[in-house]
Amino acid sequence: MTWANEVLSVGELAQRVPVRQERFLLGIAGPPGAGKSTLAHRLSVELSGSGRPAVVAPMDGYHLRNEVLRARNAWGRKGEPDTFDAPGFVADLRLLRDTPIGDPVPWPLFDRAIDEPTDAGVVVRDERIVIVEGNYLLLTAAEAPGWAGVRGLLDECWYLDAPRPVLTERLLDRHTAGGRTPEQASDKVMGSDLRNADLVAASRDRADQVLTASDRGYRVS
Ligand SMILES: Nc1ncnc2c1ncn2[C@@H]1O[C@H](COP(=O)(O)OP(=O)(O)O)[C@@H](O)[C@H]1O
Ligand SMILES: [Mg+2]
User: Fold this and answer.
1) What digits encode the pLDDT tens for the residues 125-181?
2) Any idea which ligand is nearest the CA of 34?
3) Residue nearest to atom 15 of ligand 1 (CA)
4) Domain 7-165+203-220 indexed as CATH 2.60.120.10
5) At what angle do helices 194-201 and 164-177 cross, to 10 degrees?
6) Which H or E run contains 212?
7) pLDDT tens per residue across span 86-112
8) Residue 27 CB neighbour total at 10 angstroms
């Protein structure tokens, strides 16, 4: 029996991922900077280490390339829902579902060093558990065209939340580490990232469970 508001370790969270014969797609949604990529990585290590091979398939690899964004005059809004190839992401999720275990499904990754997706990312092959992580997994068609097809392709979707000041600080750090000046970083966070965070927050109630990191693990509510 589990209780709302308990704090679970990553190992305990991993035990919440059902054992299935078919491939299981676990979504981790949440605002930018919440710690989704970190949690997805930790879960995959935990699952794989306990004999349940798992792989992370991030949404971030579906960022449109910078030259495409510039041509559309959308580079400054990079990170918003329409700056991703949502149909490509949905199509590849379907491929993950439809491809027999053991056959390869290539999955792109996002390389923060060059700020571009890389086609040669990971290959999902034998893993029965795929952890799909990204901001926009739980959006409706009314919120952002192209994304509503995602949820139906996931078996379960968790939501990782974090307090807004924490998000803000992490995003500022991310952008300065990526080469922006503090002022440019602030413009990006205030003018774009936090707006995206608000859009994502509206989808929180659609998740199967909501997690918030604490110093002892992840609080479930
Ligand atoms: N549980 C946690 N406790 C403390 N810091 C964390 C935690 N999870 C993530 N972080 C830090 O927060 C920042 C954003 O994490 P990341 O996983 O990249 O977020 P997201 O993928 O949601 O944008 C990183 O610097 C990461 O090290
Ligand atoms: Mg991430």
Assistant:
1) 999 999 999 999 999 999 999 999 999 999 999 999 999 999 999 999 999 999 999
2) 1
3) 35
4) no
5) 140
6) strand 209-214
7) 999 999 999 999 999 999 999 999 998
8) 28
Pairing of strands 7-8, 24-29: unpaired
28, 36, 38, 59: which to mutate for ligand 1, most atoms within 8 A of CB?
A: 38
What are residue 219's DSSP bridge partners?
7, 212
Tokens of 102: 């053991």
Rounded CA gap, 144 and 161, in Å? 20
Tell me how crowded residue 35 is: count the other CB atoms within 10 A of its CB.
Answer: 22
Specify the ligand 1 atom closest to the Cα of 215: 3
- Are 126 and 100 contacting, i.e. CB atoms less than 8 angstroms apart? no
Calculate mean pLDDT across residues 175-189. 95
The candidate with the shortest Cα–Cα distance to 26, out of 138, 161, 129, is 129
The end-to-end CA distance of the chain, in Å, is 14
Q: For the chain, what are the domain ranges?
A: 7-165+203-220
**Mean pLDDT throughout 53-67?**
98
Q: Which amino acid is at 50?
A: S
Residue found under tokens 């676990």: 26
Q: Give me ligand 2 centre to Cα 35, in Å.
A: 7
